[in-house]
Specification:
The chain is mostly helical. The chain has a domain at about 1-60. The chain is built from 5 helices and no strands. It has helices at about 1-55, 60-75, 90-95, 100-110, 115-140. Helix 1 (about 1-55) packs across helix 2 (about 60-75). The relative contact order is 0.04.
Amino acid sequence: MERKNDFEKSVEKKVEHKVKKIIKVIAMVLFGVAMLLLANYLLMRLWNWLMPDLFGLSTISYWQSLGIFVLAKLLFGFGGGRKKGGGPRHKRQLRSSNRCGSLRRDFGEWKHYDQFWKEEGEEAFKAYVERIKNENHDTE
């Protein structure tokens, strides 16, 4: 009897999960259609606001703007293309690429900077400043 109850519960959960998925898909389709209709309406309003005054063209209806929208998508593409931001895979490829390989090698030498400054840098800097002062003093 308990097995039947567990079985019924698991079937119930699976059905509930599938129903939720179906509802989400339907909601996304409806949302997509609503966005398309809204974009088309905005296209019509922008056209009717700008084109007659700027170029002397006539105003258009909602269905004409839908035709222009579809034509523009056919001519210029649907924006699918490659991702600009990329995901983790894209970022890994950028890190592993050797575009700045020479810079990376140069930065490896910076780990010796502190030791150099302690041993030679401060004295070399003071000598440089003295040399500059003497050169400026001679030109005046």
